[in-house]
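Record pair follows.
FIRST:
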Amino acid sequence: MVVGSSVSIFLRNLLLFAGGAVMLVVTSPRLTGLVALVIPLVLAPILIYGRRVRRLSRLAQDRVADVSTHVDETLWAVRTVQAFNREGQERRRFAGRVEDAFRSAVARIRARAMLSSAVILLVFGAISLILWVGGHDVIAGRMTGGELSAFVFYALVTASAVAALSEVVGEIQRAAGATERLFDLMDEPADIAAPAEPVALPAPAAGAVAFEDVTFHYPSRPDLAALEGFSLSVAPGESVALVGPSGAGKTTVFQLLLRYYDPQGGAVRLDGVDLRAADPAEVRARLAIVPQDPVIFSADAWENIRYGRPDATDAEVLAAAEAAHAREFLEALPDGFGTFLGERGVRLSGGQRQRVAIARAILRDPAVLLLDEATSALDAESERVVQKALERLMQGRTTLVIAHRLATVQRVDRIAVMDHGRLVAEGTHGDLIAGGGLYARLAALQFDAAS
C-alpha cells in the first residue's frame, strides 16, 4: 500500500506544500511568520501519535498472524476436528482471535484518527488566526483584500497538503510496524552458514560418514544432551540401522548430518570433510531423505518427483517412478503424471505418498540415503511394496536407517543401538540378540508381541 499509493500521495502533497509555502512568503511575509509559529504545534502530534500508530500496527499484525496460524492449523486437521466434534469450539476460538485482531485494528485506527484530527484542527485553527489578523491588516490598509484572498487560498492549499501528509505518515507508520516483524527475522544471524572459504568435498562422492565424539544440545534444551560422546563410522556403500527407544538421539543424528545444527563438541564428517568447513548446499546435494511423513507439494507428480533434481528429463522421472513402484498408480490417475495431487498430497494414500518420496530420492541419486521410519505408518501390503522400492534404492549407496520396527532392519549390514544419546552396541541382528542388552530386550518385546 505504501509503495503503490502512499508514496505518490506523499510526493504530490509535498510539492503542493513547498509551492504553497513559497507563495505565502511572496504574498505576505508577516502572515507567513505567524504560520511558521504553528508548525511546531503541528509536528508534535505527528511525532507523538506516529510512534503510537507504529506500535499498534505491529500489535495488529501479530493478531492477524494469530488468526492465520489458527486457520491453517485447523483446516489442516479438519478431519481430526470433525472426529472429536470440536467444530463449535474451534469456531469460538477462531471468533476470539478475530475479535482480538479487530480490537487491535480499532485501537490503531483510533490513534491514527487522533493524529489526523489533531493536525487538521491545528492547521485550520492557524488559518482562522490568519484570517483574523489579515482582516485587521486590510482594514488598516496594510494589505489589499485581493492579497488576503490569495494568501488564504495558498494557506488552504498548504494546509490540505499538510493534512494529507499526516495521513500518509500514519500509513507509513503502519507499514513500519508491520515490517518490523520481517526485519526482526532478517536481522537474526544464521546459526548455519557457509564459511568464507568452504572446503570442497572430494569428487566423485564416496558417501563415507563419520561422527567423532559428538556432543550436542538443542537450543531449546541446553541442559539436556541429545548426543553425548557419540561416535559412529559408516563406510561407503554400507547400510546401518539406528535403533533405540524414543529420545535416544536417532533423529538428531540425521539433523546433524543434514547440518540443520552444528554440534557443540566433536565433529561430523562427510567423505572426510568436517561439515562446519563445507558449504551446506554442497553437503545436502549429496544426501537424500525419505521421511516417515513424506512431503508432497501442491503440484503434479512430475513436479513432485523432479523436486529431487529439477533438470531431470521426463524419461528419468518415469524411470525413477518405475523403480519406486509408483509409475503404475500415477499413470492410472485421471491426467496421469500431470494430475494435481492436492495440498500435501491428500489425493494419494499413505503408501502412494511414500513411493512418490522414494521416487524423488531415486531421481536425486544421492551418495548417502537417510531413511526415517519410511514404512512405519503403512499397512502390510503397502509396506511390502515400499520395502522393495527401498531395497532397490539402497543398492550401491551409503544408507542410514532409523527404525523402531526391528523386523525391517534385519537385512542391513550393521545395527547401531543408541540410548540416551550414546552408542551402546553395534553388530548384526544375530550378534546383538546373542549378546543380550538393550537390543535383545527390544527385540524380545516386539517379537513376543507379534507372536
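SECOND:
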Amino acid sequence: MSEQPRAVCLLSGGLDSTTTFAVARSRGFEVYALTFRYGQRHETEIRAARLIARRLGAAEHRVVDIDLRCFGGSALTSDMPVPKDRPLDELSRGIPVTYVPARNTIFLSYALAWAEVLGCFDLFVGVNAVDYSGYPDCRPEYLEAFERMANLATKAGVEGGRKLRIHAPLISLSKAEIIRTGLALGVDYAMTSTCYDPSPDGAACGHCDACLLRLRGFAELGLSDPARYQTPSASKP
C-alpha cells in the first residue's frame, strides 16, 4: 500500500483557508498546516487556526512569527482604519487598503520551504478571485507564476522527479459555493474567524469587507452565519 501523500496548507483561521484544508484532506492528503503571526491587528485568527488544525486532524501545525509591521502599508499591519460598510459592488474596484504587500508570496515561500523538508510536492492555498478580485496575489496567473518559480528554485523541483503543485481549489468559487463545499465536508464554520477588525474577545464586527462578503455568502444559501458577531443580528440571513 502506498504511503499517504503529504501537503502543506496555509491556514489563516478564516473561512476560505479552513475550507481549503478540508478539501485537501478529502483528496487523500495528510495535511500539514502553516499559520503566520505576521503583525496582524489581532490574535483571534491564530487562536482559530489552532482550534481548526486540531479538530480537522492536521498531521502537524506550525505558527511562524514574522513581522510585516516593519513595512506597514496595510490596514491589517498598521493603525490605518479598516474600511467599513462599503457597498458590495465596490469591493472589487481597485486594490483595497487591507491588501498586505507581498503577503501571499512570503507565505507561499515559507510553505515551499517546509514542503521540501517534508518531502511533499503539494501546497494548498485558499485564495479566491471571484468575490474579492482586488488582491493581485489571489489571481490564477500569479499562482501559475509562483508554481513555475517553485519548480525552478528548489532542489525538490529540480531533482525530485516530480513537479511541485500549487492547489487553489476555491479560486473560481463564489463565497456561497465555498461555504456549500465546506458544509458538505463537515466544516463547522463557528470555528473560523474572518473579520479584519474583531473585538478583543474575537467577536466579528459585521461591517468590514471580509464580514460583508462572508455574510452575503451565508445569506445566499438562506443560512445564518454561526460565527460570533458584536451585533448578533448581523449573522441572520
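COMMENT: The chain has one domain: 6-235.
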